[in-house]
Write a structure and sequence with these properties.
544 residues, alpha/beta, 7-stranded mixed sheet, 19 helices
Length: 544
């Protein structure tokens, strides 16, 4: 009763003519600890000030973000100052907060304090406050009940993937996608920049990659085996200047961009530009079909490695990420078996078959290890799809496990970092509903929200082995996704379920409770004009 009385008293003090709304801490992802207090609330009005320590440019930027977030909800902008103020929202560094991404959010009647060991931690506290405020509160004062929230993420790597090769999307949308990651407490964009169907990054040393490789003149219509093609040109690439700007945009939101140059398979766009890098010499075309194709890079050709090192040198000059994804998936060995150069490489490098692997499997391992060595010397590390386990894994490689959880489990047991991306939980290009006739065309599969939420990334591992599970990611492949609206529809709100897998400790997770909290988040999607799927509303009705 005392808490209710204090809240009512605070509201009366504002004045009965002001519109008032109540904030709540039923957010996504769910924080690790939320303790409400029997004290008067804090009231945000248009006169509330956000403060940060003088000279701290990172917290100043965080403060400006918070002011923008509040303005999106209320219509009024909060002043940002580098000095103390009464009744303010205070952003500060506190080395006692645990974890480099952890934060403490304390709300009393006098102020709101968001503290972290780093500015990044404070940023996630800002996201919590942002999501606590109602999505639509035009001109309103906001009442925030007194609370102490102590929070930090479960996993260090919290990612979303975006394929811009099968269909190309403007840089402005990629920035919107990064904003979605920040909203969901994610810190990594896995940016898939090359594939059979299109090359999307400017490489100055190899201009034909974009002159030829970024242009697809026809595309299969409907399903992969339809045999029908349109005559529509799909083209586009990002300049290095655009990508550097994108890196800066992401950095300001504490999102790291991991670029992917998929090798030695999925290289038809590159081979169309430079056919001498293939085993047969071509001719090749930027691929109009979806799937896995026989033509791959020739590993016996030394020019292939000159090419790859030239490309990757420019990639790492653009992207500061410590980790570079080099693919390694879906690489048929057919051409290598017939190629004199590849067979000579096998002989020279003494690559032997055994009961587990062929000599050609080890040729792929040779390729991955050689590229890893090159990148390690440049201060970078590699990530590869779990096929890099099909042979001798590169010594320092991180494994991204997509064919199931088995690859991640195996990698962790071997002492390698692993990122869990099992397709039956984390492929957001799969259908969200069994009633596919009412859904946009998708590649197949069925992953409803509850399935995403149910993923437990460390199942099958001992406590010690589980430490090698670096994080979790969902993938969005775009064979059947041609518009930005369609992208939004496929990832939202499944991204919210993924966020809770990535951030929240397992003993805090509860799907029925999540279905209530995600509805509040969906109001924010609606306010911002995002095209989200509404299947969760049907699921919630079934759960009740």
């Amino acid at each position: 009763m005392r808490k209710i009385f204090l809240s009512l008293l605070a509201l009366l003090m504002i004045g009965c003519t002001d519109k008032q709304v109540m904030a709540g801490y039923d957010i996504v992802p769910l924080p690790q600890s939320v303790k409400t207090k029997q004290e008067a609330p804090f009231i945000i009005t248009k006169n509330t000030v956000i403060t940060y320590p003088e000279g701290d440019t990172l917290l100043q930027r965080n403060a400006k973000f918070l002011s923008e977030y509040v303005q999106h909800a209320t219509g009024y902008e909060l002043a940002v100052k580098n000095s103390t103020a009464q009744k303010s929202i205070v952003l500060d560094i506190n080395p006692e907060v645990k974890g480099k991404e952890g934060y403490r959010l304390v709300i009393t009647s006098q102020n709101i304090r968001i503290e972290g060991t780093t500015a990044k931690g404070v940023f996630y506290g800002v996201q919590t406050l942002r999501k606590a405020i109602p999505a639509v509160a035009d001109g309103a004062v906001i009442t925030l009940p007194s609370v102490e929230i102590v929070d930090s993420p479960r996993f260090e790597y919290r990612g979303m993937h975006l394929d811009v090769c099968r269909h190309f999307f403007p840089i402005e949308f990629v920035k919107e996608y990064i904003d979605l990651l920040a909203l969901h407490n994610m810190n990594t964009l896995h940016f898939h920049l090359s594939d059979d169907q299109g090359w999307r990054i400017e490489i100055k040393k190899y201009p034909k990659l974009t002159e030829v490789g970024s242009v697809r003149h026809r595309t299969v219509v409907g399903r992969i085996d339809s045999g029908k093609y349109d005559s529509i040109t799909v083209q586009g690439y990002y300049t290095q200047e655009q990508l550097r700007d994108l890196v800066q945009y992401a950095t300001e939101r504490y999102v790291n961009i991991v670029p992917e140059i998929d090798l030695p398979g999925h290289m038809l766009a590159a081979l169309a530009a430079y056919p001498e890098l293939g085993c047969t010499g071509g001719p090749y075309e930027v691929c109009p079909d979806w799937g896995v194709f026989t033509d791959v890079l020739c590993i016996g050709n030394e020019k292939t490695f000159e090419f790859l090192e030239g490309v990757l040198s420019e990639v790492i000059d653009i992207f500061p990420s410590k980790y570079i994804h080099i693919g390694g998936d879906e690489t048929p060995r057919d051409r290598w078996k017939e190629c004199l150069k590849c067979q000579a490489r096998i002989k020279t490098e003494r690559l032997k078959k055994d009961q587990r692997f062929t000599a050609e499997d080890r040729l792929q391992s040779y390729c991955m290890a050689r590229i890893e060595c090159f990148l390690n010397k440049k201060g970078r590390c590699i990530i590869g799809w779990d096929e890099i386990l099909d042979g001798d894994i590169a010594p320092n490689a991180t494994v991204m496990s997509w064919r199931g959880s088995e690859g991640g489990i195996k990698a962790a047991q071997m002492g390698h970092k692993s990122i869990m991306v099992p397709h039956m939980y984390c492929y957001f290009d799969y259908y969200q509903s069994k009633d596919t006739d009412k859904e946009p065309l998708a590649i197949g599969g069925y992953i409803p929200m509850e399935k995403v939420y149910s993923l437990e990334p460390t199942t099958g591992l001992t406590q010690e082995q589980a430490k090698f599970i670096w994080g979790v990611q969902a993938n969005l492949w775009t064979e059947y996704i041609t518009t930005t609206d369609h992208i939004e529809y496929m990832v939202l709100p499944r991204m919210a379920a993924l966020a809770e897998v990535q951030w929240t400790q397992p003993d805090r997770k509860d799907y029925k409770n999540f279905t209530c909290r995600v509805l509040k988040l969906m109001k924010l999607y609606e306010r911002d004009g995002l095209n989200y799927a509404e299947h969760i509303c049907e699921e919630k009705s079934e759960l009740q």
